[in-house]
Specification:
By secondary structure, the chain is mainly alpha-helical. The chain is built from 13 helices and no strands. The chain has one domain. The C terminus is likely disordered.
Length: about 325
């Protein structure tokens, strides 16, 4: 039996560290921030790249790992509420909110993206919906499956960013466009999802404003993280309305750390060419443009739009290094 599922356990370190840090409280609640934004970008460089894939490998344990990511999202949220009940809103609890948002964004992206493609109303699909509800993004499943996968890298796709657009503007304009896209694809489902989220927010406000602030704060961080990923996955790679999609219309990264911790999300061209393919069976494509860094390094580069655009345009013209 293949043991290639073992590196993917690494991704579960993020919610585990977050849960432990919320338990200890105080300055420890900055641990997830330090890990994801400080340690991982450098570790990503050290671990390097790998083109190794195994599209025929066993998927049972990989499936369990994906579900654990989804189920960790509400656990982190519960732990955050528990910490708020003890400390209220303080400088330290703000660190906890930011860390919870990063964890729920990372695990939420992985879970929603992977499990949201499973059969509708299945346990896997509902697990994806649970993780999305915890970050106020229930419409993602509809928009992603029915709009993005139809129009990826086209001008009409709200998640595909053109050359020169900064991440800040992209996030502000993509949020309402995605809601509209989801509503256009499935009006009743989207309306019900938004109503359910509003009712939950009203309930939290009644329970206590600190809980409402904490929930919205971590959701905002998670949403930004999700949209940052959308931003880099197709940036500048455009195709016409009648042009058939191919691997050159999505950015790929072969950085080991990003692949292991984000369940092969960086092998994005392979996912788009057949969205039903489970993450452990994704493959690399030599014709796909390669990101100048892994997803953790790209987080910092995207915060500086001039540098980001210069590196991305230069990278587009470079020959693909084969490892």
């Amino acid at each position: 039996m293949s043991q290639k599922w073992i590196p993917h356990l690494w991704g579960l370190l993020t919610p585990f560290v977050t849960l432990v840090s919320l338990w200890f409280g105080g300055v420890w609640m900055a641990t997830t921030l330090v890990l994801l934004l400080g340690v991982y970008p450098f570790l990503e460089l050290i671990l390097g790249e790998s083109s190794s894939t195994d599209p025929l490998q066993e998927g049972k344990i990989h499936n369990i790992i994906a579900h654990l990511h989804a189920w960790c999202v509400p656990l982190v949220l519960i732990a955050l509420f528990w910490r708020i009940s003890l400390d209220g809103l303080t400088i330290f609890s703000t660190l906890g909110i930011l860390s919870a948002g990063l964890s729920n964004g990372a695990s939420g992206i992985v879970a929603a993206h992977e499990l949201g493609h499973r059969r509708q109303r299945s346990m896997s699909w509902r697990s994806a919906r649970l993780s999305l509800f915890c970050v106020l993004y229930l419409h993602f499943t509809t928009e992603h499956n029915h709009t993005h996968h139809k129009h990826w890298a086209r001008d009409v796709d709200p998640t595909s960013s053109p050359w020169g657009r900064g991440v800040y503007y992209h996030v502000l304009q993509t949020l309402p466009r995605q809601v509209r896209g989801a509503y256009k694809a499935r009006p009743l489902d989207t309306r019900n999802s938004l109503a359910f989220e509003v009712v939950f927010l009203i309930g939290l406000a009644i329970v206590g404003l600190p809980y409402l602030a904490a929930f919205i704060g971590q959701a905002a961080v998670a949403i930004y993280l999700l949209e940052f990923v959308n931003y880099i996955q197709h940036h500048g790679l455009r195709r016409g309305m009648n042009e058939r999609p191919n691997a050159t219309h999505a950015w790929e990264s072969r950085r080991r750390l990003s692949r292991w911790t984000l369940l092969e999300l960086p092998l994005h061209p392979s996912h788009h060419l057949k969205s039903s393919t489970s993450y452990e069976r994704l493959t690399v494509h030599d014709e796909a443009p390669q990101l100048p860094a892994g997803y953790y390094g790209m987080f910092w580069l995207a915060l500086i739009p001039p540098l980001f655009n210069k590196l991305m345009q230069r990278q587009k013209n470079l020959a693909l290094p084969i490892n």
